[in-house]
Amino acid sequence: MRPFSALAAALMLATALPLSAQEARVHMTPADIESASYPGAGDLPPGQSALTAKLQILLDRAGISPGVVDGFRGGMSESAIRAFERKHGLAQDGRLDPHVWALLEQHATAPLTGHYTITEQDAHGLVDAIPTDYAEKAKMASMGYTSVQERLAERFHMDERFLAQLNPSARFVAGETINITVPAKPSREKVLRIIVDKASGRVAAYDATGRLVVDYPATVGSAATPSPHGSHLVEAAVIDPDYTYNPNINFKQGENDKVLRIPPGPNGPVGNVWIDLSKPTYGIHGTATPSRLFVNQSNGCVRLTNWDAQELARMVVPGQTIVDFLDPGVSIAEVTKPVEPTPMPAVAAGAVTDPVMGAVTDGGTANAAEAALLPAPIPATRPVARRLPGPAVSAAADPLAAALNQATGTAAAQETAQPVAN
Q1: Which pLDDT tens digit goes with each residue over 336-367?
Q2: CA gap 326, 334 in Å, rounded
Q3: How far apart (Å, rounded) are the C-alpha atoms in residues 353 and 75?
Q4: What stretch of H or E contains 16?
Q5: C-alpha angle 184-339-349 in degrees, rounded to nearest 5
Q6: Coil, strand or helix at 408
Q7: Distance (Å, rounded) from C-alpha 394 to C-alpha 191?
Q8: 306 by DSSP, 3-state: which?
């Protein structure tokens, strides 16, 4: 039996609490989220609150994904605070405090909520329902969204029920203007190292200098089908992949004993992203149930929200990005160099503010704490990076940037997509 860490137990307990309290929702408006403030002491309030919703949006903008924005205090939010603390060299207790809040507020200079007008395209390609049985899935033309609400919740990194909560009278039809939360635009930096930490349920990605770029919540394997060990190369990254069910190689689902092809779509077995690893049959992929990342189990792979998986797929470099799976009992902090604590922020002269996301920067210089995150010594058994050819994925394929431009009233920025192999 594998070791079971106290951190893993705490995360499971914290995750169970908001799930059991999902019906205990509070009245909340976009104005409540905008005006929410930290009192200066104590942790997040229990259950659902505007303060937790605001925290989740700010974490998303800081490159530390909280999973879905739903306003509930729980395991994913706690793991995201721990990751944010790790990024800034702070004590990792997963609790909100004045230092963490002051750093997060640097990303709050632009509105956290906005308005979005639903288009005819948003209602295109919907399916009636997604069957559980794989044989029935294989008969369908697409594993598409089942509603406009589901599509838009995913686009804006929100829980479906939370989107409905902010729009109590919405019908989610074309021409209707709804309230949404405003996440960060997808990062387009290249990442050459990914660290998977099953115990904390986090996946951290670093650039060539060892700087932390993004950090996501994840489901990593299960007791029946554990995740791989060691280091593996990213071989390819595919958006909207088919899924091949083969009971002779992987798991058996129900009575299905034949190889099946399941069509692509966000509600497929691997969501709408597959990042293929050099370890046969293993990869990093999306999920049809983002709100249950810390509850569901995966069949050995690494499961992210669809939006996090899409962002990562456009940042990896096939043949060069290495994925390190940590051994039980080893943390991300232990395989990266110590980080000097980021001091309480003060906006310096000459600092600039991102016009959409509001992140205060120094004009391009990496945070000293992030720059100190250099890769750990590479073991002799680590795979050798090599370049794999592959066409670039067009930035236009990602609707989030255009939707955020509509929500915030800004012009579309030119983005450069990273190579993704098909």
Answers
A1: 988 999 999 874 434 444 433 433 333 333 33
A2: 10
A3: 31
A4: helix 6-20
A5: 60
A6: helix
A7: 18
A8: helix
188-339+382-392 folds as L,D-transpeptidase catalytic domain-like (2.40.440)
Q: Which two tokens stand for residue 236?
A: 């390819």
CA distance 330 to 334: 7
Q: pLDDT averaged over the chain?
A: 82
Q: Are 216 and 62 in contact (CB under 8 A)?
A: no
Which ranges constitute the DSSP H helices of 235-348? 306-313
Residues 6 or more apart whose Cβ sits within 8 Å of residue 366: 209, 211
pLDDT band of residue 10 (cuts 50, 70, 90) is: very low
Q: Which of helix, strand or coil describes residue 154?
A: helix
Give the lowest-confidence range in 18-27, 307-316, 331-340.
18-27
Q: How many Cβ atoms are within 10 Å of 99's Cβ, its own excluded?
A: 17
DSSP 393: P
Give the integer Cα–Cα distance in Å for 141 and 149. Answer: 21
* Structural fold of domain 24-185: Muramoyl-pentapeptide Carboxypeptidase; domain 1 (1.10.101)
The first and second tokens of residue 362, run together, are 């120094």
Of 44-53, 298-307, 373-382, the range with the lowest mean pLDDT is 373-382
Residue ranges per structural domain of the chain:
24-185, 188-339+382-392
Check if 285 is active-site.
yes
- Cα separation, 364 vs 310, in Å, equals 25
Q: Is the pTM of this model over 0.70?
A: yes
